[in-house]
């Protein structure tokens, strides 16, 4: 039995932006939350679902604003759950998909804290869907991989094997990849991926600010540069992109 004096941490996925994609379970928790610690990519409409008396703490990274380190966030969760019943850790999309939710879960459980995970609609599924792109499709794609494009930044040795992904997976969905797009495209082409492979970029997917860009592995880098297409965006690479209706 958990200590009745201590609350519970709910690791909640806020979905990709459109408030209609918030889960009913997540929404109910926001309505009953005592404390909500939220990230940068949580949409304002979802924040409006939070109980007006709840303590709201911003933890995310946004240019020019102070953000908490991962250690500080975990510490904060550990402190708040000692005195509050419902502590919500609210993350954009799904908490476990490139959201560091796993780290928080393990750290809290390691301290004996009760944690419940409420999945969310991840941007890598929702953004292509709002553009009419099915990630799998009979005859075109029977496999899909979610990949981070972020790990190739700086000195950090990437764990992503682009060459094997180029051959083994039919649809690639890349998060945090805009900055490294030239490197990623080069790696895929080097591995022998067809230059004509279609590619879709979706920025601020499912929100009123949604923007999309299409091209091929051959053309996309120049197009991104020409229109100054910026993060946050999802990149989809594969034949399924060809199924997208015109914007
Ligand atoms: N946990 C989140 C992903 C966090 S990583 C999820 O499941 O969706 C942050 C990256 O997600 C961004 O850099 C971008 O690549 C992507 N992303 C998040 N929200 C997005 C949106 N509304 N539209 C497009 N990309 C988005």
Which percent range fits the helix content? 25-40%
Uncertain regions spanning at least 5 consecutive residues: none
Q: What is the spatial order of strands in the main beta sheet?
A: 3-2-4-1-5
CATH-assigned homologous superfamily of the largest domain? Tetrapyrrole methylase, C-terminal domain
Ends apart, CA distance between termini:
54 Å
Please write the string of helix (H) and strand (E) elements: EHEHEHEHEHEHEHEEHE
Which molecules are bound besides the chains? S-adenosyl-L-homocysteine
CATH architecture of the largest domain, by name, is 2-Layer Sandwich
CATH class of the largest domain: Alpha Beta
Q: Taking all residues together, what is the mean pLDDT? A: 93
Rg, nearest Å: 19 Å
| Structural class label | alpha/beta
């Amino acid at each position: 039995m958990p200590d009745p004096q201590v609350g519970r941490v709910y690791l909640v996925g806020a979905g990709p932006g459109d408030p209609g994609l918030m889960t009913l379970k997540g929404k109910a928790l926001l309505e009953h939350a005592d404390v909500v610690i939220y990230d940068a990519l949580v949409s304002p409409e979802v924040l409006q679902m939070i109980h007006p008396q709840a303590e709201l703490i911003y933890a995310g990274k946004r240019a020019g604003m102070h953000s908490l380190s991962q250690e500080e966030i975990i510490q904060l969760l550990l402190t708040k759950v000692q005195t509050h019943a419902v502590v919500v850790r609210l993350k954009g999309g799904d908490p476990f998909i490139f959201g560091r939710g796993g780290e928080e879960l393990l750290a809290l459980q390691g301290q004996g804290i009760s944690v419940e995970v409420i999945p969310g609609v991840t941007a890598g599924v929702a953004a292509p869907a709002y553009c009419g792109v099915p990630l799998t499709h009979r005859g075109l794609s029977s496999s899909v991989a979610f990949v981070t494009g972020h790990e190739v930044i700086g000195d950090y040795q990437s764990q992503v094997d682009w060459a094997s992904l180029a051959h083994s997976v039919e649809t690639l969905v890349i998060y945090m990849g805009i900055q490294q797009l030239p490197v990623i495209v080069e790696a895929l082409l080097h591995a022998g991926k067809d230059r004509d492979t279609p590619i879709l970029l979706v920025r601020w997917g499912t929100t009123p600010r949604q923007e999309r860009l299409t091209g091929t592995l051959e053309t996309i880098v120049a197009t991104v540069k020409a229109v100054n297409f910026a993060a946050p965006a999802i990149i989809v690479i594969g034949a399924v992109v060809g199924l997208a209706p015109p914007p």
